[in-house]
Amino acid sequence: MNVKGLNAAALSIRSLSMDAIQKAKSGHPGMPLGCAELAAMIYGEILNHNPQNPSWINRDRFVLSGGHGSMLLYSALHLSGYDVSLDDIKNFRQLGSKCPGHPEYGITPGVDATTGPLGQGIGMAVGMAMAETMLAEKFNTKNHKIIDHYTYVLLGEGCLMEGVSSEASSLAGHLKLGKLIVFYDENRISIDGSTDITFTENIAQRYESYGWQVLQGSMYDYQQIESLVEEAKKDDRPSLIMLKSEIGKGAPTVVGKSAAHGAPLGEDGVKAAKEFLGLPVDKDFYVLPEAYEYFASKKDEIAKKYDAWQKDFDAWASEEKELKALWDIMMSGNPLDVNETFPEYTTEDKLATRAASGAMLQVLEKMYPGLVGGSADLEGPNSCKIKSSTYYAPDNRGGRNIHFGIREFAMTAISNGMSLHGGLKPFCATFLVFADYMKPAIRLSSLMKLPMIYVFTHDSIYVGEDGPTHQPIETITSLRTIPGVQVLRPGDAQETELAWLIASETKDHPVCIMLTRQNLPVYEKADPDWKNTIRCGAYVAYNCEGEADITVLATGSEVSLAIEAAKLAKEKGKNVRVVSVLDRELFANQPVQIKETLIGNANRVVTLEAGIKTGWEQFVKSNEDIISIDTFGTSAPFAKVAEFFGFTPEKVAEKLCK
């Protein structure tokens, strides 16, 4: 171990971090100053990685769960040879920079996950560790270990206080994810002061109770950190390495104080720190030559390890041609070229769209061998079991069904991590109303452009007796408002199949599929080419003879309701067209010509959805033509609830005939 080189690297990380934050006039110097030695160790001695190939599938992952300390990461990436230049660092937090305020996946080479919302980083790391075991089980052979890597995390008290870290850590311990190693920056300081004001639990005992190995040491002892990592690797449990540290170490004006957390040191503070650390006061963004030399000396070792893996991979590919073909498919995210028959439905059928979803899942799991997932303890109600497979467990890493437990937030973050890892196509499921527990992680799914699939059942007031706590009124709209999230609400079993196809084909954004608990009729489609038309977000499900007086835009379970109401309105002399809107936002953003073709020349456009009116105003001339529910639901059998809110064919027909 080159202690001199590590010291130079740590000192350079402090130098770059304090100067970048000072130049930007914003940022968080506390962690970069306090954890510089660990960062030097991680990128110099611990990680098996290749800066020349940041997306190498068998690299060790590193997740900075406390993403506010981003300059720690950017400095280490720059020094260790990633495509992060000194100019990039000088442009920290500026428009278009490779070094944004918090680490962003896809923006900065070497950043394995977008972090900043505290606690989600460790959740994603759990997913990465799970993915490693799944792919190792599928592709490793007796002679070749092509997937064999660790997932490392750096977190602080903020991450440990957020509930999602508890959820994720609990599951990680249960699953015995021995290749997950978490470093805890134990400085005991948060924004408002000492963590003693709110956070006095015994963290070691907490993690031991989760089933983790807990190790303790100093942030500033290289030999000790190395030995702790080696000890962690010997255990089949995930490991928490608690490292005593000082926030703002090396900056005399703020060291050990909450003031170090989230503000530049100031010109005087930077000067004092440089003088204390022995850095040249008159040089900004100074890197010790020994730091560059240290990481340059690692290049041959990194190249040899990578070349050895590549040679082993090539030998495996030559010997295991069928596995290699499967590998290529799973890494591409494309479907296998298999002749699968989709379930067929007729207008005689009546079933819940959640049931149709479950049937479609059995087809798609054969087309997509990387499709894995589960629910938050709702596998039966969500109809989301892959029937041909078993359950993922410590003694069964090949299972494609995952018991996430009642941990919606962690389930979502973990699924994001599985997607980030590569090679898998994860989905997760719960009741729609519990999407509120998941939204922070769904937002990150979209921010990272991950092709996550979210299955939400029990999608409206038709949940019935469970009442307003379980009847989502505003939830669909709230998901539609997240940029980049695609929300699909199919109206019958046939549309559900199309929704799943759209979701499974997607590669650059998350998709939410909204499904019913109650049975719905399969309706005859007026558009003979509806399977293609629906990909613009909507199609004509029911048409009238001649020009329509009214066009109803309906979603989900309300499509069949609209059709029945249209038939009643016809008896009263009203010509009504019904458009099934699978994806409202996609439809709304179509060219005017497409929207006008589907809506027709109707004098009135009426919208029908068992949720709040927000967002439907764009389609109507008067808000009176928005048939919605703008209060919470009520507890009763679902037919009574529907009648109470006026969601019956007769009540809707009355409104159409006004």
Word description of this protein:
α3 packs across α10 and α6 packs parallel to α8. It contains 26 helices and 20 strands. A six-stranded parallel β-sheet has the order 10-9-11-12-14-13, with helices on both faces. The chain is of the alpha/beta class and 658 residues long. The radius of gyration is 28 Å and the shape is elongated.
Q: How widely separated are the two ends?
A: 83 Å
The Rg value, from CA coordinates, equals 28 Å
* Poorly predicted parts: none
What's the number of extended β-strand segments? Answer: 20
Q: Outline the biggest β-sheet.
A: 6 strands, parallel
Biggest β-sheet: strands ordered side by side in the sheet:
10-9-11-12-14-13
| SS field, number of helical segments | 26
Structural class: alpha/beta
Our estimate of the beta-strand percent is 5-15%
Coarse morphology = elongated
Mean pLDDT across all amino acids: 97
Q: Helix coverage percent of residues? A: 40-55%
